[in-house]
TrEMBL record, chain A:
Protein location: Endomembrane system
Keywords: Membrane, Protein transport, Transport
Classification of source organism: Eukaryota, Metazoa, Chordata, Craniata, Vertebrata
Gene source species: Bubo bubo (Eurasian eagle-owl)
Protein name: Adaptor related protein complex 3 subunit beta 1
Annotated stretches, region: Disordered: 655-678
UniProtKB/TrEMBL annotation, chain B:
All residue ranges annotated as the MHD domain in the record: 176-417
Organism of provenance: Glaucidium brasilianum
GO biological process: intracellular protein transport; vesicle-mediated transport
Keyword Protein biosynthesis attached: no
Family affiliation: Belongs to the adaptor complexes medium subunit family.
InterPro entries: Adaptor_comp_med_subunit, AP2_Mu_C_sf, AP_mu_sigma_su, Clathrin_mu, Clathrin_mu_CS, Longin-like_dom_sf, MHD
Entry GO terms, CC: clathrin adaptor complex; cytoplasmic vesicle membrane; Golgi apparatus
Gene that specifies this protein: Ap3m2
PANTHER family in the cross-refs: AP COMPLEX SUBUNIT MU
Main localisation: membrane
Domain of life according to the entry: Eukaryota
Stated name of the protein: AP3M2 protein
Length: 844, 418
């Protein structure tokens, strides 16, 4: 492989390496190559230039020569020129303008890939003058027939916004339009644009909420992450908290079957006002759950945080298994996931207790992973598992990674304070560690023991004595300081040893660390107050040493202590209280997890990882007291088939459409003229489950451009509920002007209709520019027949006879019903069903 | 989202940079170098580094740091997962992902990166789609291109992008239709001093290599699907079908892909296929220590354990080791203190052992912990969890494909504490 690849473009790379010495010659050479007539020379030059860009070398001088090739026929040259343009256009704005017209032309290209890449490059050129052109291009692309182009339009929105925030209002309009898009390709990108441009316009989401929930499984993985994060924020503003009551009674709880329970519930409701989850809230939880099985760690994490922030507490634990699975992934993924688990495990221990052993540390783990695992183990410790954990910790303490061993000792300390049963065991264990050979371990133990003794100073004279002995050997300043502080604080418990310790340290005072010196002074002061007979002289000696110390702090402290404890004529009122001041009861330090305060950040975010607000972090709001009006999410016109179910007079329980992709597909139309992928799962006959489906519809010709003197018209059935009334079938007519003059006043005239048939005309089109096309919708009541509707399509000076004949399928209405209902209806008596439809259905 | 990408090699040179929005100066990497210095080892460099104006998210693979520059809030896993996908794509394109390879193919790398992100948001990450947009370099194509002047850049939108099966390209043709599935299980275990298991888990994957013509629809069923406790799928697997029938039903991508990864529940007792007998002792008085380990098979279901490799990080006090293995070769690196012993196959009749003495630094006290022993091994033709594929069927195409299934068990993170 290696040899193959190197043949491929070795020359360019080699030149890049050599370039430093003779760059001037090289650039002149490149210019010549770019201006040559041969594509191969141009391509070679472009490859070298891209190589320079990749290495971070400046190639901006070549701009004029490169930009000439923007219209090259060779697609690879063109692509490389695009790469170059995106890199340097910002620096060479005037010259960059030369390329704009090429993109404008490419935006109209019949090939969707070319349209899309033209839009991509045009919007990536950060030149403020072309903002209006970009705006226009985005608007046009947002109604492009290819979903791929529309996806690129959504990306372009963000680019334009960062270039010129003034365009916000106009861009929001485009976002609003694209949010309505049903293509899974567009969904992720437009939500991303929404998050960047107008994350506070939550009202734009309402109508699309259910659609987004239902599309979610089919969206590409990156889009899923963005949508899930957005929906988490949305849900926190729209639904009431499911956490108030532990027992969650759901709307479709099975208890409904039992009448007695029903009554019981009625009573309960009056008393407690039991929480019922909004069905939309449930829809979100249900539709995200299968994504826990995604191969993409980011998606799994996104779902996990959604459940953490939105699900009833009893349900949140389903995410733990998947999170633990992620621990077998790369180091970086482990790091982020462990951080999030650490935060979770503080609040809800139960979630991860069954997986305790998955957090056991391996000697090959990097230190940062080890410490995180240790953190989680400590959070999970309880009476039941503490003995196993302590045994495990014993191994860690012996680890060769001393930083980790020190962290383990801290962890043992935390376990000891949290679980009172084992405090003594831990303390004994830590005391044993005091005889460890490694100084860091001993020092850490001393510090932790000090904290532990402080929390329960009851009768630990023995330990203090033991530690006093250690003072001869330990050299780590923090540990020495801790021991001295302990002896001073509890000097009354060790009356014999304390003065002796002071004697010893006074001897070594000058060689001690500052930290230790301060504690020696403290010890002296405390002893002076409690046992002045024995220590008066010693203390004064120490104070004298301190007086001439090099450090300001120590001289300060010395002066302060002397004034406070040694009575003289100048000493103020305070010296009376010296004993109270020095030997006051001090509050014990709390041994807390460093992850304690992270929970106010949304899990899975960068801010949570850093434990500080990152730029652009969007706060997760608190649950509202009262849920805002849920009807805002109802989709009234065109979109949902949900309302139609009422037509049949049947109640329907909404079923989630969980699927990774559709299993049955209607005939695939190669032309991508309409949006959306067809999705229809378990098609139990036509009647079942056409929810959320739009098929690739077939376009029929209404008027050919030859017979229409340049005016062409096509129509298709939009398969949406008629907006012109219940009996109207909606028909989308696209009129195109293929002449090179304007066509004015296009309208419908002289309808020749069979009896009963009615047509709702479209509004006359004032004017149609050359090469422009407009889609209008009209409604036709075919009276349930397949007879032709004939009429005249008129322009200002001409008229053409046209007719529309509907296929039977276009007259049928999709109806959603559960399988049970369907069987009941169809198997018992198909006729009745037919009758029901006849009577109630809108168009049949 | 992702603003820029820098590729940094082991010696700290930035050898590639790519910007998706306005240009970020490469001096931003200084913060990264600082963190790298502090971390001493590459593995300990924090994956997320905040700087005054940017955030640096990095992954470390194949001795290269892939550093992404972020300007505002974004789920960190999103970026990390994407970076790993970039590395996978390079590997897929060039066979190996190394500095030399990337430098040699810098143009293709650039074109691929351009397609993968638009304005910092992932655009095309499926390898099947990417390969249609930018064709991987091969000798044949290079020759053809130079003669005919055609390019390796596709000019049509890959059909996958718009279809409901974006991972598969259309018009796939093979003369030999074949589908291979490898069931590979890894045992992660910690064994304590006395030989009892502290924790053991099995992680499995099914990697597939499918070369089938047209649009085949495959189903794969297991004899004992209940074993699988937690699973994650390639997007092609129909989740509903799995939920209801425990059958994997999918239209496969073309070529190599990971169909499924699974976890066998911790409740099931995990069979540990090897044991290690060890006797490592340091004496306080003398500067010599004893070292002796023996590896033997335990529950191997009659299969041979091969590819055995023993590594151990010795304490700092060990100066040298004089060892004699009964088979295989061993190396002790006196600088890193890493002992590795390549054992090879285990013959149950004659167990491999490594015996000898250690020279300790004079004057220092004995280390308080014995070194842990890391084990690697392979067992062919065995899935240690007992998972068995029942059958593989193909629908939707007429031909008869050649099907193959292979099992293998490997050591994952297998540690013996001594």
């Amino acid at each position: 492989m290696s040899s193959e690849a190197s043949i491929y473009n070795r020359p360019s790379v080699l030149d890049c390496f050599r370039s430093s010495g003779n760059s001037w010659f090289q650039k002149r050479n490149l210019k010549q190559m770019l201006e040559s007539s041969k594509d191969s020379a141009k391509l070679d030059a472009m490859k070298r230039i891209v190589g320079m860009i990749a290495k971070g070398k400046n190639a901006s001088e070549l701009f004029p020569a490169v930009v000439k090739n923007v219209a090259s026929k060779n697609i690879e040259i063109k692509k490389l020129v695009y790469v170059y343009l995106m890199r340097y256009a910002e620096e060479q704005q005037d010259l960059a303008l030369l390329s704009i017209s090429t993109f404008q032309r490419a935006l109209k290209d019949p090939n969707q890939l070319i349209r899309a890449s033209a839009l991509r490059v045009l919007s990536s050129i950060r030149v403020p003058i072309i903002v209006p052109i970009m705006m226009l291009a985005i608007k046009e692309a947002s109604s492009d027939l290819s979903p791929y182009v529309r996806k690129n339009a959504a990306h372009a929105i963000q680019k334009l916004y960062s270039l010129d925030p003034e365009q916000k209002e106009m861009l929001i309009e485009v976002i609003e339009k694209l949010l309505k898009d049903r293509s899974t390709l567009v969904a992720g990108s437009v939500v991303m644009a929404f998050e960047e441009v107008c994350p506070d316009r939550i009202d734009l989401i309402h109508k699309n909420y259910r659609k987004l929930c239902n599309l979610l499984v089919d969206v590409e993985e990156w889009g899923q992450v963005v949508i899930i994060h957005m929906l988490t924020r949305y849900a926190r503003t729209q639904f009431v908290s499911p956490w108030k009551d532990d027992e969650v009674v759901e709307e479709y709880s099975e208890n409904n079957f039992y009448e007695s329970d029903e009554e019981q519930k009625e009573k309960d409701r009056k008393v407690k006002n039991i929480y019922t989850m909004d069905p939309d809230h449930r829809l979100l939880l249900r539709n995200t759950k299968p994504l826990l099985q995604s191969r993409n760690a980011a998606v799994v994490m996104a779902v996990a945080q959604l459940y953490w922030h939105l699900a009833p507490k009893s349900e949140a634990s389903i995410v733990s298994k998947s999170l633990v699975r992620l621990l077998h992934s790369n180091r970086e993924v482990q790091y982020i996931v462990l951080q999030n688990i650490a935060t979770m495990s503080i609040q809800r221990k139960g979630m991860f207790e069954p997986y305790l052993k998955s957090f056991y540390v391996r000697s090959t783990d990097p230190t940062m992973i080890k410490t995180l695992k240790l953190e989680i183990l400590t959070n999970l410790a309880n009476e039941a598992n503490i003995s196993t954990l302590l045994r495990e910790f014993q191994t860690y303490v012996k680890s060769q990674d001393k930083q980790f061993a020190a962290a383990t000792i801290q962890a043992i300390g935390r376990c000891a304070t949290n679980i009172t049963e084992v405090t003594d065991t831990c303390l004994n264990g830590l005391v044993c560690l005091l005889s460890n050979r490694d100084e860091i371990v001993v020092a850490e133990s001393v510090v932790v023991i000090k904290k532990l003794l402080q929390t329960q100073p009851a009768h630990h004279g023995e330990i203090i004595k033991h530690m006093a002995k250690l003072l001869d050997n330990i050299t780590v300043p923090v540990a020495r300081a801790s021991i001295l502080w302990l002896i001073g604080e509890y000097c009354e418990r060790v009356p014999k040893i304390a003065p002796d310790v002071l004697r010893k340290t006074a001897k070594s005072f000058t060689t001690e660390d500052d930290l230790v010196k301060l504690q020696i002074l403290n010890l002296g002061a405390k002893l002076y107050l409690t046992n002045s007979k024995q220590t008066k002289l010693l203390t004064q000696y120490v104070l004298n040493l301190g007086k001439y110390d090099q450090s300001y702090d120590i001289r300060d402290r010395t002066r302060f202590i002397r004034q406070l404890i040694v009575p003289n004529e100048k000493s103020g009122a305070l010296s009376k209280y010296a004993k109270k001041i020095f030997l006051a009861q001090k509050p014990a330090p709390l041994l807390e997890s460093p992850f304690k305060d992270r929970d106010h950040f949304q899990l899975g975010t960068l801010s949570h990882t850093l434990n500080s607000r990152a730029t652009g972090y969007l706060e997760l709001s608190n649950w509202p007291e009262v849920a805002p009006d849920p009807s805002v999410r109802n989709v009234d016109v065109a979109e949902s088939t949900k309302e139609w179910t009422g037509i049949l007079g049947m109640t329907k329980k909404e079923k989630p459409t969980e699927k990774f992709y559709s299993e049955s597909e209607e005939e695939e139309d190669e032309s991508t003229n309409t949006s959306s992928s067809s999705r229809c799962l378990e098609s139990n006959l036509h009647l079942h489950c056409l929810e959320n489906c739009i098929f690739r519809t077939k376009t029929h010709e209404l008027l050919h451009r030859m017979s229409g003197k340049g005016l062409a018209a096509h129509y298709h059935f939009s398969r949406q509920p008629g907006i012109f009334g219940d009996h109207m079938v909606s028909v989308q007519v696209t009129v195109t002007n293929t002449t090179d003059q304007k066509i004015e006043n296009i309208h419908i005239k002289e309808k020749k209709l069979p009896p009963g048939m009615r047509v709702h005309e479209f509004n006359p089109i004032e004017c149609l520019e050359p090469a422009e096309s407009i889609t209008v919708s009209m409604g036709i009541d075919f009276c349930d027949s397949t007879q032709m509707a004939s009429f005249q399509l008129c322009t200002k000076d001409d008229h053409f006879n046209v007719n529309i004949q509907p296929p039977v399928g276009e007259l049928l209405l999709p109806v959603t019903m559960s399988e049970k209902d369907f069987k009941k209806e169809s198997l018992s008596d198909l006729n009745i069903l037919y009758k029901v439809i006849r009577e109630n259905c809108t168009w049949l | 989202m992702i603003h820029s990408l820098f590729l940094i090699n082991a010696s700290g040179d930035i050898f590639l940079e790519k910007h998706w929005k306005s240009v970020v100066s490469r001096s931003v990497c200084d913060y990264f170098f600082e963190a790298q210095e502090r971390a001493s080892e590459a593995e300990n460099v924090p994956p997320v580094i905040p700087t005054p104006h940017h955030y640096l998210l990095s992954v470390y693979r194949h001795k290269i740091f892939f550093v992404a520059v972020i300007q505002s809030e974004v789920p960190p896993l999103f970026v990390i997962e994407f970076l790993h996908r970039v590395v996978d794509t390079f590997q897929d394109y060039f066979g190996v992902c190394s500095e030399v390879m990337i430098k040699d193919n810098v143009v293709v790398v650039y074109e691929v990166l351009e397609e993968m992100l638009d304005n910092g948001f992932p655009l095309a990450t499926e390898s099947n789609i990417l390969k249609e947009l930018i064709k991987p370099p091969t000798i044949l194509r290079t020759v053809v291109n130079t003669i005919t002047g055609s390019t390796n850049v596709g000019d049509q939108l890959p059909t996958g992008q718009l279809s409901v099966v974006p991972w598969r390209r259309t018009g796939v043709k093979y003369t030999n239709n074949e589908a291979y599935f490898d069931v590979i299980e890894e045992i992660d275990a910690i064994i304590d001093k006395s030989g009892s298991t502290i924790t053991a888990e099995i992680q499995g994957v099914i990697d597939a290599c499918v070369k089938l013509t047209g649009m085949p629809d495959l189903t794969l069923s297991f004899m004992n699907p209940r074993l699988l406790d937690d699973v994650s799928f390639h997007p092609c697997v129909r989740f509903k079908r799995w939920e209801s029938e425990r059958i994997l039903s999918f239209i496969p991508p073309d070529g190599n892909f990971r169909l499924l990864s699974y976890h066998v529940s911790a409740q099931n007792l995990v069979a540990i296929p090897v044991y290690v007998k060890h006797n490592i002792s340091f004496r306080d008085s003398s500067s010599l220590g004893r070292f002796e380990i023996t590896v033997g098979p335990k529950q191997t279901m009659g299969k041979t354990v091969e590819g055995v490799m023993v590594t151990s990080q010795m304490p700092k006090g060990v100066l040298n080791m004089t060892l004699t293995p009964s088979q295989g070769t061993h190396i002790f690196d006196p600088v890193t203190k890493l002992l590795s012993w390549d054992v090879g196959k285990i013959n149950p009749q004659k167990l491999p052992s490594l015996k000898g003495s250690m020279t300790l630094q004079a004057g220092t006290s004995k280390p308080d912990e014995n070194p842990t022993i890391n084990l690697q091994f392979k067992i062919q033709q065995l899935a240690i969890s007992g998972l068995k594929v029942n059958r593989l069927d193909m629908y939707g195409e007429k031909y008869k494909p050649f099907k193959g299934i292979k099992y293998m068990t490997k050591a994952g993170k297998f540690q013996v504490r001594t």
